[in-house]
C-alpha cells in the first residue's frame, strides 16, 4: 500500500501539506493510465465539444441580440429637413406618417443616430448638426444626387425604415482658387484674350454657381479683357497696370458673393520713335 500523499502507479497526483500537519487528499488527473493514442483522442473530443459549445453560445447570443432585426416587419416613411436645422427641431411624427391617429407604442432607433432621435411622442427630432456638404453625414451627395440619411426605428417587433432627405440651403459663398490673379497684356494688342478663374460653390442648384451664378467686373479705366469692337487698345505710356475686382455671386434668394483681385499689367513694346526737339541740341 502507498503512503497517503505518494503517487499511485499509473496516476499523476500531488499532495499538499496542510497547516494542521495532515496531508490533503491528492488531486488526480485520470488519463495517464490510458495509452497516449487514447488520451489524444479523448483530448480532441473534449476540444471539439468545447469549440462546438462556444460556437453555439456565440450563435445564440447573436440571435438574441439581432432578433428585432430578424423578426421585424418592415415599413417605410419619408421625411425631409433643411441642413443646419436647429437642434431639437421636429422633422416628423412616425405614427402619423404610418397612418395611425394615436401613439400605439414607443419607437427606438437601432443603432442610434448622431443626427436624429425619437422622443416619447414618436417625433423625430434633430440631435446633431447636419451639413449637407459634410462627407461624413452625406457621403454620396452631389450636384445631382440627394443626401438621404436612413434610420431603423423599432416599435415592439415592427421595423420602420425612416429616410430623411437633407435639403440644401445657401450657406456657402463662391470660392476662387486664388484671392488674386495677375494678367499680362501686350501693349497695343487688340486680339488678346485673358482667361479668368471660375468660382466654385459647395451648394447645389440655384444656391450654387452652375445654374444661376453670375460674374461682375468692376474697375477703373477702359479695360476689356476681350476687346470689344471699337474699343481703344491698351497703351503702356498711358497706364502700366489696371486694378479690377472680379466678383462671383451665386443664384440663391439672398446671394453670397466673393471677389478676386485682378492685376492687369501692360507690357511695353517699341511702338514710339524718338522725338528730336531743338532743346536737345547745345546752343
TrEMBL record:
Coiled coil: none annotated. It is a single-pass membrane protein. One of its GO terms (biological process) is homophilic cell adhesion via plasma membrane adhesion molecules. Keywords: Calcium, Glycoprotein, Membrane, Repeat, Transmembrane, Transmembrane helix. Residues 107-176, 199-276 form the Cadherin domain. GO terms for cellular component: plasma membrane. It is found in: Membrane. GO terms for molecular function: calcium ion binding. This is Cadherin domain-containing protein. It comes from Macrostomum lignano.
Amino acid at each position: 500500500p502507498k503512503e497517503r500523499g505518494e503517487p499511485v502507479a499509473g496516476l499523476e497526483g500531488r499532495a499538499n501539506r496542510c497547516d494542521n500537519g495532515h496531508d490533503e487528499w491528492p488531486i488526480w488527473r485520470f488519463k495517464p493510465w490510458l495509452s497516449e493514442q487514447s488520451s489524444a483522442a479523448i483530448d480532441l473530443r473534449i476540444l471539439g465539444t468545447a469549440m462546438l459549445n462556444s460556437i453555439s453560445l456565440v450563435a445564440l447570443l447573436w440571435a438574441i441580440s439581432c432578433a428585432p432585426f430578424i423578426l421585424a416587419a418592415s415599413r417605410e416613411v419619408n421625411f425631409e429637413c433643411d441642413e443646419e436645422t436647429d437642434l431639437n427641431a421636429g422633422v416628423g411624427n412616425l405614427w402619423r406618417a404610418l397612418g395611425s391617429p394615436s401613439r400605439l407604442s414607443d419607437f427606438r432607433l437601432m443603432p442610434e443616430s448622431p443626427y436624429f432621435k425619437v422622443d416619447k411622442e414618436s417625433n423625430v427630432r434633430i440631435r446633431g448638426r447636419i451639413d449637407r456638404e459634410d462627407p461624413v453625414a452625406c457621403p454620396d451627395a452631389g450636384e445631382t444626387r440627394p443626401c438621404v440619411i436612413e434610420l431603423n426605428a423599432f416599435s415592439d417587433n415592427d421595423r420602420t425604415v425612416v429616410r430623411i432627405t437633407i435639403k440644401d440651403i445657401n450657406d456657402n459663398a463662391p470660392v476662387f482658387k486664388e484671392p488674386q490673379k495677375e494678367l499680362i497684356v501686350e501693349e497695343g494688342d487688340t486680339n488678346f484674350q485673358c482667361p479668368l478663374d471660375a468660382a466654385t460653390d459647395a451648394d447645389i442648384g440655384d444656391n450654387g454657381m452652375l445654374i444661376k451664378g453670375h460674374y461682375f467686373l468692376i474697375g477703373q479705366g477702359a479695360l476689356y479683357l476681350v476687346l470689344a469692337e471699337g474699343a481703344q487698345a491698351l497703351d503702356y505710356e498711358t497706364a502700366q497696370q489696371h486694378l479690377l475686382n472680379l466678383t462671383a455671386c451665386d443664384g440663391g434668394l439672398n446671394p453670397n458673393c466673393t471677389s478676386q483681385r485682378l492685376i492687369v499689367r501692360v507690357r511695353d513694346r517699341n511702338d514710339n520713335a524718338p522725338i528730336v526737339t531743338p532743346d536737345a541740341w547745345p546752343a
